[in-house]
Specification:
about 0% strand; about 750 residues; Methane Monooxygenase Hydroxylase, Chain G, domain 1; 4 domains; mainly alpha; 26 helices; elongated; two-stranded antiparallel ribbon
Length: about 750
């Protein structure tokens, strides 16, 4: 085989196990920076404290964190992480000689640093590296006089890691999810263009365009379900925006096929701009055109509906016009939100106001704006709950590393920071994965101990021989862990530890034995913590989180509905309910994102995703309706219709409550009446209201009637969503296959599921 054949084979192998040679680039980068730092500290500056800290700083920044993103983003992230190290290293050194102070500080540092990952992807990616600064500083006892040398080591390696991050084989890849989202948005835009008044599209082409959005959305969802975990701190704001775009695309596809209006041209242009922006072929979409077009449409549509209600008592015709208007309004809001989320995904800050009315109230966040600080504070408050996976993960890690540090002091273990580092490496979000990782770590350490013992026997006391193989073992430790498997990587890392510390303090093969003891101790702590603290991880939390989302969503939706009913009191504050449901929605997304990284079988993730979307749709549609305000002190001659709508609101709210209770406890699910049945039940009261409004000359009274019919349309839509949600919940227990049309499901044995009103158990 020629040299060219070998290179080609290596590239083919890399394309399978190491896409874009990412692991090769990373391992080479760590090798260059860590080796340089070690050699300078050991053989040029002759300072062991500087050498150790510089080497582990290089490992932390280029090996553990390895920040991605733009060159400027990588530079800022590396400099910020190094700056954090300059703060934590003195703290760790000051407390390193007393076990209880080192342990208390360990808990606080790990908790704060890990929890800070809620603020950005860079915070999340760098949290483990920053924690390592404190682990090394406090795990290797030293007097305060060692602080200057240690800080010099952090500064040296931090500067080199920053340069290497953008100068040594950096990898800049396109986001495949962005491309798929852009394709789906283009499909929606083309469908809207085909439905515009001036479009001339053949029937076959129109059918193709109608089918394309759903196919593209399914492709995005399949790709998203197969993606790896989204980081220790859950999805970033950009990833949340991408998920929201997918939810919006699916909902827009549902609505588009039921409407035709002049607003579609503006919406099509906005979606086309979103797609071009995601493909890096244009500027982020502007919000003004679609927001202005939506407001104009609402004003004209409500005036037309008022005229129709005052002059025509045919409630069926009027109700169909209201349905069309509400669907168009929801679609326009969906397009507006697609533009907002595209801007966020492109790094252009734009947040949705927490003030009413609705999600169409947008406010940009500028640097130095006090609202940015409020946003950070709100995010922290939202996650200061045991329902937050971020707080759970932070507490689990903080307790685990603290107990490991206590064990080091209590057992007087040599090189005790290896115990803490082993716990840091092994601890996962579930007991099962922690246990499996611990077994692999011990197996790899045993293999590495055998290899290191042979190496020590061969080299004896020749330090230059150890120095010569140091770059090789650094490279293998970081390359094999991802390209081969964790066991081989752990074995190579054990050899690296033996080589590194034999150069600093020659002990031969005994260092390998100490390493084995410390890894066993760290693994024991990790397994114990995994079993004791939330052992099921997000898998045990997902049903409860979804139930909370439905509970908060139904409370907000019920309050929104009752606010539009004249004379119906609703004491709860809408703003507070909205803030609560938004916070729960974000926490539920975080739980679902972690679940995707943990899952090993169980229910189809698309079922969980569909339930999550249903929960989002509940509060989101309430936001759209909440922008309508009931006229104050206006008599309404539709008391019967108001009572019927209030009763319908209660039934729909109770239906969502039943599903939430079923998710949380496995209780009975009682099916709600179909939208057709509710339409029939509301018919006489709706007809009476339309007849009472006929000939009215009071605009406020007529507009109150229009809002009642809009509320009716929304409640019927929620009823349809609820029936589909019930089928999804039944699917979790293998009893039904969900359908998008709201029809009765079919169990896996082919039997029809119970009709509405009959009880079933999940």
């Amino acid at each position: 085989m020629s040299a060219g054949d070998i290179v080609a084979a290596g590239r083919r192998e890399g394309s399978v196990h190491d896409p874009n040679l990412q692991s090769l680039r990373k391992a080479a980068r760590v090798t260059v920076v860590a080796t340089f730092c070690f050699m300078v500290g050991k053989y040029v500056l002759h300072d062991s404290q500087l050498t150790v800290m510089a080497t582990f700083t290089a490992v932390a920044l280029t090996g553990i964190a390895d920040f991605g993103g733009s060159p400027w983003g990588r530079t800022r992230a590396n400099l910020a992480a190094a700056a954090a190290g300059l703060v934590l290293v003195p703290i760790g050194t000051w407390v390193s000689q007393v076990t209880w102070t080192a342990s208390v500080a360990m808990f606080l540092v790990v908790l704060v640093v890990s929890f800070s990952g809620i603020y950005s992807g860079y915070f999340a990616a760098g949290s483990m590296a920053v924690i390592l600064f404190y682990v090394v500083a406090s795990g290797i006892p030293a007097p305060a006089s060692a602080i200057p040398a240690r800080l010099e080591g952090v500064a040296l390696a931090g500067g080199l890691a920053t340069i290497a991050g953008v100068g040594l084989w950096p990898l800049y890849t396109r986001n495949s999810l962005r491309e798929r989202l852009a394709t789906a948005l283009t499909a929606v835009s083309e469908l809207l263009s085909a439905l515009s008044f001036d479009a001339a599209v053949e029937p076959e082409e129109l059918e193709r365009r109608r089918a394309a959005p759903r196919q593209r959305a399914r492709d995005v969802r399949t790709y998203q379900a197969t993606m790896g975990p989204q980081g220790a701190a859950g999805p970033t704001s950009v990833q949340r925006s991408q998920m929201a775009l997918l939810h919006g695309i699916e909902r827009m596809e549902d609505v588009i096929n039921r409407l035709l209006d002049a607003l579609v041209a503006t919406m099509a242009r906005t979606l086309d701009a979103c797609a071009r922006s995601l493909l890096d072929q244009g500027d982020p979409p502007e919000l003004g055109p679609v927001l202005s077009a939506k407001e104009d449409f609402i004003a004209v549509a409500e005036e037309a509906l008022g005229d129709l209600l005052a002059h025509d008592a045919d409630h069926a015709l009027f109700a169909s016009r209201v349905d069309r208007t509400l669907e168009t309004r929801e679609l326009a809001t969906g397009v507006l939100m697609a533009a907002v989320h595209t801007r966020i995904a492109d790094g252009v800050d734009a947040i949705i106001s927490t003030e009413m009315p609705g999600p169409a109230t947008l406010r940009p966040v500028t640097p130095g704006d006090s609202r940015a600080w409020h946003k950070w504070a709100r995010r922290a408050r939202n996650n200061l709950s045991l329902g937050s996976v971020h707080l759970r993960n932070s507490l689990r890690l903080a307790v685990g590393l603290t107990l490991a540090r206590i064990a080091v002091g209590a057992l007087d273990l040599q090189h005790g920071f290896w115990v803490v580092f082993a716990t840091l490496t092994i601890l996962r979000t579930t007991a099962s994965t922690t246990r499996a990782t611990a077994v692999e770590a011990l197996a790899g350490t045993v293999l590495g101990f055998g290899a290191a013992a042979g190496l020590a026997a061969a080299f004896g006391g020749h330090l230059l021989a150890y120095a010569a193989v140091l770059p090789i073992v650094i490279f293998l430790a970081f390359y094999t862990a991802t390209v081969v498997n964790f066991i081989v990587g752990q074995a190579c890392f054990t050899v690296l530890i033996v080589v590194l510390f034999n150069i600093l303090q020659p002990l031969g093969w005994k260092i390998g034995l100490l390493r084995l003891e410390d890894v066993a101790a760290g693994a024991g702590v990790g397994v114990a913590i995994g079993l004791l603290i939330w052992p099921r991880g997000a898998s045990g939390q997902l049903k409860g989180a979804l139930a909370d989302l439905l509970e908060c969503g139904r409370a907000y939706a019920s309050r929104t509905s009752r606010a539009l009913l004249p004379g119906v009191a609703e004491p709860l504050e809408a703003d507070e309910l909205r803030k609560r449901v938004l916070g729960v929605a974000v926490r539920t997304e975080d739980v679902f994102a972690q679940y995707l990284g943990e899952r090993k079988g169980g229910a189809d993730p698309e079922v969980w995703s569909a339930i999550l979307i249903a929960g989002h749709r509940l509060w989101y549609s309430a936001d759209v309706i909440a922008s309508m305000q009931a006229p104050e002190d206006t008599p309404c001659p539709c008391s019967g219709f108001i009572s019927a709508l209030e009763h319908c609101t209660t039934r729909v709210s109770d239906g969502y409550g039943d599903v939430a209770h079923a998710l949380r406890s496995g209780a009975l699910v009682r099916g709600l009446d179909s939208p057709d049945a509710l339409t029939h039940q509301l018919g006489p009261q709706a007809t009476g209201c339309a007849q009472a409004m006929e000939g009215s000359s009071q605009p406020a009274e007529v507009m109150s009637g229009v809002h009642l019919f809009e509320l009716r349309s929304w409640l019927l839509e929620l009823t349809d969503d609820l029936r589909q949600l019930e089928q999804l919940v039944l699917t979790l227990d293998g009893q039904a296959q969900p359908g998008r049309d709201g029809s009765e499901g079919v169990s896996q044995d082919g039997n029809q599921l119970p009709a509405s009103g009959e009880a079933t158990r999940i």
